Amino acid sequence: MQQKKGYWVIQCQEITDQLAMQKYAEAWKEIAEEFDAKFIAGTKTEVVEGPEVSRVLILEFPSFQIAQDCYHSEKYTQAKILALQAMQRSFTIVEGI
After folding, report:
1. pLDDT (tens digit, 9 = 90+) per residue, 65-94?
2. In the chain, which end has fewer C-beta atoms inside a 10 angstrom radius, N or C?
3. Domain count of the fold of the chain
4. 1 in any annotated domain
5. Which residues of 36-75 are buried (b: 16+ CB within 10 A; e: fewer)?
């Protein structure tokens, strides 16, 4: 049986530090390659219910476990410091159907 894919759903309320955001984006490239993560949505949003967000990103991983492993990895733990400096966000890891 094929594993269900895993997803990161990141809702950014506000970018607070552009330089930290750029550094986070640079660090993310290597992490994404290591964990085979792909951006699948995030260019245009319309909030129709709930609080306003400036950006929503959805990333796909080969499995839910790999999505979790990536988030908890040493490399992402370091990159997350930049992310939390760069933006106010909510972050959810979701298993595909």
Report:
1. 999 999 999 999 999 999 999 999 999 999
2. N
3. 1
4. no
5. ebeeeeeeeeeeeeeeebebbbebbbbbbebbeebbeeee
